[in-house]
Amino acid sequence: MLLLAPLAFAFFWWQDRQDRYKVGVLLMPKGTLNLGRQVIYKEMLARGIDPKSRVDQLLEEVREGRFDNASRWSLRPAP
């Protein structure tokens, strides 16, 4: 019985994570074959938030130059 407890916990944790989405902003210079990628922002969306609309919102911010990496959680420090 004790051997099944960690497996059950892992299964239910995995199942809970399936209805959440990660969205983010990724810089990928052209011609680098994905070797120069740099994730500058990443977030886990709560349940009930449409990931497509959030991605569209982030894309719009980046295109218009309104994306402020300093005020958000970043995986890497800005160069």
Précis, in short:
Helix content is 35%, strand content 16%. With 79 residues, it is α+β, with helices and mostly antiparallel strands.
SSE layout and pairings?
Elements: H1 4-17, E1 22-27, E2 38-44, H2 51-64
Antiparallel strand pairs: 1-2
Q: How many β-strand runs? A: 2
- On the 0 to 100 scale, the average pLDDT is 67
The succession of helices and strands, N to C, reads HEEH
Cα-atom Rg, whole angstroms?
A: 17 Å
Structural class assignment: alpha+beta
**How many helices does DSSP assign?**
2
**Low-confidence spans: pLDDT under 50, at least 5 residues?**
73-79
Q: Choose one word for the global shape.
A: elongated
* Most strands sheet: 2 strands, antiparallel
The fraction of residues assigned to DSSP E strands is 15-25%
Strand order of the largest sheet: 1-2
Please, what is the oligomeric state? single chain
Key features?
single chain, 79 residues, alpha+beta, two-stranded antiparallel sheet, 2 strands, disordered C terminus
Please characterize this protein's 3D structure.
- The protein has 79 residues and is of the alpha+beta class.
- The chain contains two helices and two strands; from the N terminus they run H-E-E-H.
